[in-house]
TrEMBL record:
Residues 30-49 bind DNA. Residues 7-67 form the HTH tetR-type domain. Gene3D superfamilies: Homeodomain-like, Tetracycline Repressor, domain 2. It comes from Actinoplanes regularis. GO terms for molecular function: DNA-binding transcription factor activity; transcription cis-regulatory region binding. This is Transcriptional regulator, TetR family. InterPro entries: Homeodomain-like_sf, HTH-type_TetR-like_transc_reg, HTH_TetR, Tet_transcr_reg_TetR-rel_C_sf, TetR_C. Keywords: DNA-binding, Transcription, Transcription regulation.
Length: 205
């Protein structure tokens, strides 16, 4: 049935879209090329995604290469460390790294695609908010902590190190970055309990 043709072949269409984006860049990406790579008629694609930005936005939203599980390690430091490691994996694996760089480059050229990429990152942030709710419940977050600022700082540091500076990522990079970003209350990477405002651990007795 026509209502099923899009969803049934969407995996192949999205995969073709993202691979061609990584191989050719946004300017040379065409719906006709995607249709040929995916083995579908171009009218099938146009029926569901009437423009190249709409198709690419949908493909990015459903891309397994750019998705990773939201961690729940039992501490804010552990969760942030796991997030850094997952993002490093995405940006150092050749196919996903090329895709991420091409997608952001394309978004800078097209307002419609830029809006779709903004939605992608907003959805990603929404998925990561439970990390901060759990941390608040454990007493690890001071009032007024901005989860978006923490996530942006985390992701920005990884992007700069991997894609802009093109430097190797040391084994302790993720843990060191998480330590830097963790608020100065709550648990620390050494799991020694809450810190006082001067950065020292609270004493007992």
């Amino acid at each position: 049935m026509p209502m099923q043709s899009g969803p049934r072949r969407s995996a192949e269409i999205f995969d073709a879209t993202l691979r061609l984006l990584a191989e050719r860049g946004y300017e040379r990406l065409t719906i006709e090329g995607v249709a040929d790579r995916a083995g579908v008629n171009k009218t099938t694609i146009y029926r569901w995604w009437p423009s190249k930005p709409a198709l690419l936005g949908a493909a990015l939203g459903g891309a397994p290469l750019l998705r990773f599980a939201v961690p729940d390690t039992g501490s804010l430091h552990g969760d942030l460390t796991a997030l850094v490691r997952a993002l490093v994996d995405v940006l150092t694996e050749s196919s996903s790294a090329a895709l991420a760089a091409a997608a952001l480059g394309a978004a800078s050229q097209n307002p419609e695609l830029a809006a779709l990429v903004q939605t992608f990152f907003a959805d990603r942030l929404a998925a990561e908010l439970p990390i901060f709710r759990r941390a608040a419940a454990r007493g690890e977050l001071p009032d007024g902590t901005d989860p978006m600022l923490v996530i942006d700082a985390l992701a920005g540091a990884v992007w700069v190190r991997v894609l802009l500076r093109r430097l190797p990522v040391e084994e302790d990079f993720a843990e060191n970055l998480a330590t830097l970003l963790c608020p100065r209350v709550g648990t620390s990477p050494a799991a020694g309990g809450p810190r006082d405002t001067d950065g020292t651990r609270g004493r007992t007795g």
